[in-house]
TrEMBL record:
<dbReference type="GO" id="GO:0005737">
    <property type="term" value="C:cytoplasm"/>
</dbReference>
<comment type="pathway">
    <text>Amino-acid biosynthesis; L-histidine biosynthesis; L-histidine from 5-phospho-alpha-D-ribose 1-diphosphate: step 2/9.</text>
</comment>
<comment type="similarity">
    <text>Belongs to the PRA-PH family.</text>
</comment>
<keyword id="KW-0028">Amino-acid biosynthesis</keyword>
<dbReference type="GO" id="GO:0004636">
    <property type="term" value="F:phosphoribosyl-ATP diphosphatase activity"/>
</dbReference>
<keyword id="KW-0378">Hydrolase</keyword>
<dbReference type="InterPro" id="IPR008179">
    <property type="entry name" value="HisE"/>
</dbReference>
<keyword id="KW-0963">Cytoplasm</keyword>
<keyword id="KW-0067">ATP-binding</keyword>
<keyword id="KW-0368">Histidine biosynthesis</keyword>
<keyword id="KW-0547">Nucleotide-binding</keyword>
<dbReference type="GO" id="GO:0005524">
    <property type="term" value="F:ATP binding"/>
</dbReference>
<dbReference type="Pfam" id="PF01503">
    <property type="entry name" value="PRA-PH"/>
</dbReference>
<dbReference type="GO" id="GO:0000105">
    <property type="term" value="P:L-histidine biosynthetic process"/>
</dbReference>
<protein>
    <recommendedName>
        <fullName>Phosphoribosyl-ATP pyrophosphatase</fullName>
        <ecNumber>3.6.1.31</ecNumber>
    </recommendedName>
</protein>
<dbReference type="InterPro" id="IPR021130">
    <property type="entry name" value="PRib-ATP_PPHydrolase-like"/>
</dbReference>
Amino acid sequence: MAELTGKFTLEDLEAIVAARAAASPDTSYTAKLLADGPMKAAKKLGEEGVEAALAAVARDRENLTGEAADVLYHLLVVLRGADIPLSAVMEELQRRTGQSGLQEKASRQT
Ligand SMILES: N=c1c2ncn([C@@H]3O[C@H](COP(=O)(O)OP(=O)(O)OP(=O)(O)O)[C@@H](O)[C@H]3O)c2ncn1[C@@H]1O[C@H](COP(=O)(O)O)[C@@H](O)[C@H]1O
């Protein structure tokens, strides 16, 4: 695998996931997850999300950091399986920057 220099970004991890998706499931966890179908990756994403939430409630910073990394990695695998680029998610997040979350919630309740 090519060595990455500089600040590691989610875009870097997305590129790694895309490259490993084409590998053999015998040599790549990413490829194995995708080969097992969308249910498997989605289930793992849900598990990691719950584990991250439990670590947050337990105020376990070290565990939360690791579980957060698991969540982000598995989310990128799920997005890859659904053919949704990270850029689409970032565009959606950028679109939301113009409004407070509380304003958005209030606009749905009227
Ligand atoms: N960031 C990750 C990453 N984070 C977590 N994981 C894997 O996600 C799995 C997490 O599952 P669990 O903690 O539940 O452990 P487990 O019980 O063994 O998992 P299951 O048997 O239930 O699937 C572990 O196998 C981790 O190794 C990751 N696997 C890969 N990556 C990245 O993807 C790259 C390519 O990996 P391969 O696709 O395996 O080549 C790696 O170099 C990393 O950059």
